[in-house]
What does this fold into?
Amino acid sequence: KAGVTQTPRYLIKTRGQQVTLSCSPISGHRSVSWYQQTPGQGLQFLFEYFSETQRNKGNFPGRFSGRQFSNSRSEMNVSTLELGDSALYLCASSLESVSSYEQYFGPGTRLTVT
Amino acid sequence: DQQVKQNSPSLSVQEGRISILNCDYTNSMFDYFLWYKKYPAEGPTFLISISSIKDKNEDGRFTVFLNKSAKHLSLHIVPSQPGDSAVYFCAASAQGAQKLVFGQGTRLTINP
It folds into this structure.
């Protein structure tokens, strides 16, 4: 079974621009979560989507948004980029059974804001 | 507020010996715990998990122990191998929420 895929793998943007990142979950997984990893803050939860609905949200400003499509693929968007948005953005998918809540991560998108 | 803490930023262990990585949590609502391994420029790889109804879970060389009264969990790797060198993260979730709270990670180095 193919793992979680994320595109693009690397991205360089300028302050003030916006960016869209894409994630394809493992086949059959309906829950997709997004995380931000930075050296200072570590791995932080952004939001989670299930059946095209945002079900959980972390403590990030409204510039960070996402959506999920009917095939469970997900995108996240960051508008008005700031230097501090430079990070590794990770997508994870989950089968979500009654006995386990493991999330499986993609390789990430490295975003650099200049 | 750091709800999940890994107090050791790094750990060095000789090949073949036991590696013990520790994690503490403060939120008593957490009821599911996971360990991930991460190499540079890759996403975290799931290793092992444990539900709060258990105090131990084993998978091959990896064993996770949970002490709910102390709000402490540990990951034991026996025997340690050079390929185990990576950053290890513990994570926790509450009541089935797909929202993992991660520790800061421990860099494990296995010396030959």
